[in-house]
Amino acid sequence: MKVSIALEELGLPYEPHLVSFQTNDQLSPEFISLNPNNKIPAIIDPNGPGGQPLPLFESGAILIYLAEKTGQLMSKDPAKRYETIQWVMFQMGGIGPMFGQVGFFHKFAGKDFEDKRPRDRYIDESKRLLAVLDKRLAGRQWMMGDDYSIADIAIFPWVRNLIGFYGAGDLVGFANFPEVARVLAAFVARPAVVKGLTIPS
């Protein structure tokens, strides 16, 4: 969702392709030629650096590339640029893995495990990460202040999934993080986010 949201925010023309895990599309030679890690998302920019096609995988790398290609969604000021990248990496290394594990243990196969210690470890870490976000967002409109950026696009689809798709809002005490809730509401109200969340249909 992050990449489709970014493409919609940037107004770039693109052609989405559904990669169905039910039919193992991610293991096809065509897809593996784009992403040897056989995970979504992956893109090909036919007009990459030097006018050559550029395949890319990993959502964080794609977000940084699209921001730099268009000069949008990331400050050109070097310090702010690196600060933005820092929060993208915060999502990649912390929020994504931890919220995903909460989803596994709460919604999927993990709920059948009698030993709740692994689940509780991920719940506690997710609470800690939400507290970091809540503190960061106090007095700020977005992660980078007044400027909406790829940091928001990286983080808030995961927050949305944690409390929506995974249904873990009560589990992580989401009501205790009003700043995160405020910014999530603003994020999902953006027209490009509304569109991006439906792609591919």
From TrEMBL:
It is an enzyme of class 1 (oxidoreductase). This is GST-like protein. One of its GO terms (molecular function) is oxidoreductase activity. It holds the Pfam family GST_C. Residues 77-201 form the GST C-terminal domain. Its EC number is 1.8.4.-. It comes from the Bacteria. Residues 1-74 form the GST N-terminal domain. Keywords: Oxidoreductase. InterPro entries: Glutathione-S-Trfase_C-like, Glutathione-S-Trfase_C_sf, Glutathione_S-Trfase, Glutathione_S-Trfase_N, GST_C, Thioredoxin-like_sf.
